Structure formats: C-alpha cells, structure tokens
Amino acid sequence: MKLGCKCPDCSTVNRISAFIAADRVELAKKKGAEFDLRCAVCGSNTKIHVDDVYAESDLTVLLAGIGSAILGVFLTIWFWNAGFIATASFAIPIVITAGVASHERTKIKLFNYGFYDSKRSRK
Ligand SMILES: [Zn+2]
Fold first, then answer.
1. Chain mean pLDDT for the chain
2. 73: CA distance to ligand 1 center in Å?
3. What separation in Å is there between the alpha carbon of 7 and the centre of ligand 1?
4. Which residues, at least 6 apart from 43, have a Cβ–Cβ distance to it below 8 Å?
5. Which of 49, 53, 89, 93 could anchor a disulfide with 68, C-beta 3.0 to 4.6 Å?
6. 108 C-alpha vs ligand 1 centroid, how far in Å?
7. How far does the centroid of ligand 1 lie from the alpha carbon of residue 16, in Å?
8. In the sheet where 54-56 sits, what is the strand order?
9. Alpha carbons 41 and 39: distance in angstroms, whole number
10. Ligand 1 centre from 36 Cα, in Å?
11. What are residue 87's DSSP bridge partners?
12. Cβ atoms within 10 A of the Cβ of 84, count?
C-alpha cells in the first residue's frame, strides 16, 4: 500500500512515502489534520488535508508473487530430489500471493473508507 494525494495546482499525484499510516486518523496524529506538501512536479507548496490523502496498491503484491514463485520452484526441486512429485508446491505461490493481495486490498479499503473529519466537505 502506498499513500498519495493530488496537487491542487497541476493534478499530479504526489506519493507520500516519508510517513505511512494505517488510516487517516493515525496520519492526522502523525502529521496534523493539514500538512504542507511541496509538489514534485510544479514545486508549489500546498496544504493537504489528511482526508485528501488516499491509499492505492503498490508493488507489494507483485513482489510477493515473484518471491513466492521462486520459493515454489525451490520447493518443487527439493520435493523432486526427495523423491516426491509435488503438485502441492505449485499451489504455494498462488496461496501466498492471493493472501497478500487480499490483505493489501483490505488495508487500502480501510484507509480510503475512514475519514478523519467526516463533517468536512470534500471536493
Ligand atoms: Zn503540482
């Protein structure tokens, strides 16, 4: 999961990587309800409200997929050498990747559905 927010001047999505929070309330505790952001593209300084920050997926799922696929290959070789024909080891990367993907989706949903200031009008 990564956090980003749109620059009001040029609409570029700036990634917020210096701080990470599970939800907007936690983010507000760390950074304040509003914080300064300097746009990476147009350079303008803007005040960003935590409710304008949103979460999206990053490379976590892809990396988990690649990592567990490699693990699956090694397990298959290991089982093969041990004298088993292991079809189960092919399922391991799929199970791991699906698990990570669903965990990421839940995290992103949690962040995007919870607002810090529910009375605040949003654009
Ligand atoms: Zn900008």
1. 89
2. 45
3. 5
4. none
5. 93
6. 24
7. 14
8. 13-16, 2-6, 54-56
9. 5
10. 13
11. none
12. 12
Q: What is the mean pLDDT of residues 114-119?
A: 88
Structure tokens of 33? Answer: 């309800």
Nearest-10 crossing angle of helices 60-81, 88-113: 160
- Taking the C-alpha atoms of residue 37 and residue 35, their distance in angstroms, rounded to an integer, is 6
Q: How many A from CA of 94 to the centre of ligand 1?
A: 40
**Cβ(101)–Cβ(61) below 8 Å:** yes
How many residues are there in the chain?
A: 123
3-state secondary structure 62-80: HHHHHHHHHHHHHHHHHHH
